[in-house]
Amino acid sequence: MEVTEYRGAPGHEQVLVGEDPACGYVGIVAVHSTALGPAVGGTRLWSYPTRQAAVDDALRLSRAMTLKCAVAGLPLGGGKSVIVANTPAFRRDDALRAHGRLIERLGGRYVAGEDVGTTPDDMERIREETVHVGGLAAGAGDPSPYTAQGVVRAMQATAAQLWGSDDLAGRRVAIQGCGSVGGHLARLLAAAGAELVVADVDDARARRVADACGARVMAPEEVLTSDVDIVSPCALGGALDEETVARLRARAVVGAANEQLRGESVAERLHERGIVYVPDFVANAGGVISGAQDLCGWTPGEVREGVERISDTVRAILAAAAAEERSPHHVALALAEERLRRAARPGTSPGPERQTTSME
Ligand code: NAI
């Protein structure tokens, strides 16, 4: 396998590009930061229009993982890896093993896991070449119920800030995307008494979730701008651009999708319109917190407490944003950066939540 160091990302600690023409493997591992601990982040297997698009995806997503772990108070850093699925000679199992060899070169500075396009079985193939992989079938299991639970806690904290009560009964919530997280979220919100509208490009999936939760199905292109209290993007990234934000009718955006905003300026537009946006990397941390079971030796109880703490984190961010008249997005970024700065200063601890990990 040929491995090259990508030098076009000065904000990242290390980015490796691996190629093995024999099995059509092109993979990228991006380590954004190990200031707080080993860089964690899933392995995305996806078809990209260009190699640069794959690199850009890895760079963007690995930075988001750093922010997510820092705000969640985890002793973990941010990384991400991608495998390009649309090379002419692509052989999946061999490409996954090649990816394992690329990860192994980093000696534990990056730990892979499941992501869009990969499964626990795929993690087993990577595991044949490196121990630095989570998300195995025998591990902590599917993170999406934890992610959904964390989003509910974030919604409750938002409701408390906006309406003086964290009770979601009677609140109207629109969910975009009825996949793993969206499906769990719909069930939790229905149990809490929320009124739901749901949408998915896969109409049958939307109907299944709607039937199970007493929700109304809406067209995917209308759901974000529907007349509700909270919208919850739980599909792919980039759901909110300036034009969509101008048409939003909800008072808050609280969802699971990674990279919901198409550019930082969208956070400002939301703030100007008085719409509370809970940053994705804060609201969707439940999944990576559940991974702390495998990665940091946390007990199931510690994981549950970690997910519950998302509520306190969101309350603190929204309170600071209101007091300082800044967007929650910028307050959360500053919080993450402060924790990273403290970790980088010798003799200081990154925060009270820091735990010991066997992988440090
Ligand atoms: P999934 O693949 O199970 O579900 C996504 C759903 O969105 C699918 O049903 C798909 O048909 C639908 N969809 C795609 N484009 C759509 C559109 N334009 N309108 C409506 N529906 C659309 O993915 P999963 O695991 O539920 O994740 C959802 C989002 O949350 C992703 O962005 C993921 O990166 C993010 N996330 C997931 C975590 C997890 O624990 N699974 C953890 C943190 C973030």
Describe this structure in words.
The protein is of the alpha/beta class and 360 residues long. The two termini are 28 Å apart. 1,4-dihydronicotinamide adenine dinucleotide binds next to helix 4 and helix 5. The site of 1,4-dihydronicotinamide adenine dinucleotide has 26 residues, from helix 4 and helix 5.
Per-chain topology:
Layout: E1 2-5, E2 14-20, E3 25-33, E4 39-40, E5 43-46, H1 51-71, E6 77-84, H2 92-104, E7 110-111, H3 120-127, H4 144-163, E8 172-176, H5 180-191, E9 195-199, H6 203-213, E10 216-217, E11 230-233, H7 242-247, E12 252-253, H8 265-272, E13 276-277, H9 280-283, H10 286-296, H11 300-324, H12 328-344
Parallel strand pairs: 4-6, 4-7, 5-6, 8-9, 8-11, 9-10, 11-12, 12-13
Antiparallel strand pairs: 1-2, 2-3, 3-6
Helix pairs in contact: 1-12, 2-3, 4-5, 4-10, 4-11, 5-6, 10-11, 11-12
The protein binds 1,4-dihydronicotinamide adenine dinucleotide.
